[in-house]
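hey so i finally got around to running the thing on that chain from the lab meeting. sorry it took forever, my laptop kept dying and i had to restart like 3 times. anyway pasting the input first so we r on the same page abt which one it is
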Amino acid sequence: MPEQLLDRATLDDLLRVASASDYHRWEDQIRRTGGCADPIHLTGWVLHKDKTTGETLHHYSTEGEPGGRLRLACGNRRATRCPSCAWTYAGDTYHLIRAGLAGDDRRDIPATVRDHPRVFATLTAPSFGRVHNQPDRGVCRCGTRHSADDPALGTALDPKTYDYAGAVLFNNHAGQLWQRFTNRLRREVAARAGLTQRELKECARLSYGKVAEFQKRGAIHFHAVIRLDGPHGPDTPPPTWATEDLLADAIRAAVDHSYTSVSVPAAGDQPTRTFRWGTQLDVRPVKAFGDGTEITEQAVAAYVAKYATKAAETTGATDTPVHCRRCRGTGRSPRYDRADSVLSTCATCHGTGLSEDLTRLDIPEHARRLMAACAQLQALYPDRQLARWAHMLGFRGHFSSKSRRYSTTLGALRQARADYRAAQEREALGLDDAEPDTVLVLADWQYAGHGHTPGESVLAATIARDLQLNRETARQALAELSAEGEW
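ok and heres what got predicted. didnt touch it at all, straight out
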């Protein structure tokens, strides 16, 4: 938590929590959540009994816990919501991406995957108007040399001519554009190998892992690891004709092909639009080990993991939904108007589809205009749910995703962590010698709220900083040992 003066109410609550007789147990719970900023509260009990004898092996109840509650990590992936849980999510994403680049014996991904053709590609959005930028040479078109932290970066040079509607509609259709790209990429690979698509399936498979990132201007673009495997995935070698050059050439051809586009019909005052990828396409081979370049397996995995915990807040937009909950952003009431048997206007948001007045939000004007464009286009494209995703500037896809056989899954990584924790618990309770089939587990849990009091928030933030410092210290020590050849 940044250094600042605490108000009297927060300070009083902090002293109350710190001086409580059960503070150490509360601190232990928060440390177990990793310093979660918004923990889930549960009440209930769990009972372990021997199936044969009926003997009670262990009994736990939240009645003896601080406030009578057990606190669990919220699991939110967004760093703006909970840095601690986002750190865990980023770690899982790192291992998922790296497993597809370097292999992982624990998850049946052989190290030979390093020999498969793989590239790191960045697909960007087209231009919707001139924005303030940092050119490699000279100054911005506005005549200013912007610093890296200048809030003007990415904002429109002329808001009156900037295509805000086109920008949010592109974000909204970016998922479909990616799907068309991958479909066309398979055709381009098959054409360069002299094969039909059916023959390609019998000898090679295209795999990828990707993450979405918002540029400063509010347009979405994708970073992707794209790999060529044998017909059954990473555990089978690719055909001899499969090379990184062939894959890179096929990617460029797929991006440029007319098939890789999405058409949006005209509606109201909006013209017909055809969206394609931008001209700033970057395709680089991924190196197994450092060779003077930054495109290594570790660098790529870390880069993808970093952006997996971010969203549109990087552009200055809100990180919480602003749509009307009653009508789910449609602006229409779920009830029919008896006069003409059509859906009537939502009485809560008065047809705007929003629960917030955008003019009162403390956000940059560029982000406000993009969010407002989502609300204005909702009536013209009701099936696109633009108002519901206004806080995401229209983007409604997954921020990180992968093909089926790229590597392991986030679910498998989380299950491995849960199994490890369960084994730790059995050992701590003295149940590690008991066969799992002989132990009956009875439990009753109920949701009891979430979050911290003001004083708890300050203490939880301090605990989270301590844990982060410990991780960084351990990581630095490990790096030093590795450099000295002692690890």
